[in-house]
Structure formats: structure tokens, C-alpha cells
Amino acid sequence: MKLVYTGKQQELTPPQQRKVDARAVKLSKLLLEKGRGEKDGHVVLSKERHLHHAELTVRFFDHPLAALGTATDQFTAILNALDKVEHQLLKFRARWRDTKRTMESKAGGEPAPVFRKVRMKPPRQDEARRPNGKPMTLEEAVMSFDEEQDYMVFRDADSEKTSVLVRRRDGKLDLIQP
To answer: In angstroms, what is the C-alpha Rg of the chain?
Structure first.
């Protein structure tokens, strides 16, 4: 990561510069984006009375990460700013990794359908008795109609059409044919 300094800068000693460069390399490894090349960090340096301020700004996936480091010397202020940006970046990446994301259409902003696992229920008794859908006469359908059933769909043996037996509230059965 390349740091660009703006403002009144004091010269850093070679060991201090190596330490700042090592922190910048560590931060650039966290900032890796495929196909986007090396990142630039912008450091704005200022001094107010006896305090040095270093404001570091870096863009990560179009999100600005900014931190203000304050200390009595410029080197420590730069390191504080680097630490704060690193903390923000780790927090952002953890939030990105842990949240559920759905694909959204670009135009409407409506989420795409989410498919959920549905546990299959065991087949009902009438389905278990006639898995092949063999045609039944009306009398066979009435005899196989259970007390707890509200309706029953069957294929009529005479007309080969689908028919429905429905239980009314008074307990009697109605036949519905197409």
C-alpha cells in the first residue's frame, strides 16, 4: 500500500519509516481486491499546539475507511491512525462475511426469491392406499372416505375424469364433477 502524505511532515527516522511501511503492507494484505491493483492511503498531517494529528483515508469496495490518530509525536499519530483503520477494516470484513446476502435486482431493488428446505410430510392414508391413482367407482370412494377427511379427490372409473367428494358441515357428502 502506498501512503501519500499531505501537510507539514517531519522526517521519520529509517527504523520508524520501516515500521510504518510494515504496517501499511499488513493493511494492504487485508485490502486485497481482485483485479483492482494496489491501494493508496491518503494521510493528512497537522499539528495543534503540542499534539500531532494524522488523518488516514482508504477506500475499500467503495466504502471510505477513515481514522484520526492523535499523539505527542507524528510517528505515533500515524501508527494510531493505521491501527484504527485496520480495526475498521476487520470489523467491516467480519460483518460482510457473517451477514446473509441475497441477490437483488438492480432496477427494482426487490430481493430475489429465497429457497428454503422443506421437510416432506409422510403420505396421507388415502395416498398410501392408492399410490398408482387407480380409478375408483363412486361407491369405493365413499367407502374409503375417512371420518377426519374434509375432501377426497379421485378418478372416476366410469368417466375417467377427476371427481371430488366434499364433506358438508352437516356430515353429508357432496360430489363435484367437471
So the answer is: 36
Please give the order of strands across the beta sheet that includes 151-155: 151-155, 162-167, 173-176
Residue closest to 1 by CA, chosen among 46, 59, 74? 59
The size of the chain, in residues, is: 178
By the 10 Å C-beta count (0-12 exposed, 13-18 middle, 19+ buried), 81 is classed as buried
Pairing type for strands 63-71 and 51-60 reads antiparallel
Q: Can you give the pLDDT at residue 69? A: 92
| Residue 63: CA count within 13 A, CB half-sphere | 12
Total-model pTM: 0.51
Domains of the chain, with CATH numbers?
2-98 (3.30.160.100), 129-176 (3.30.505.50)
Q: Report DSSP state, residue 14.
A: H
- Per-residue pLDDT at 80 exceeds 90: yes
What does DSSP assign to residue 154? Answer: E
For residue range 5-46, list pLDDT tens digits in order.
887 777 888 888 888 888 888 888 877 755 556 678 888 888
Tell me the pairing of strands 173-176 and 162-167.
antiparallel
Phi, psi dihedral angles at 119 (to 5 degrees):
-80, 130
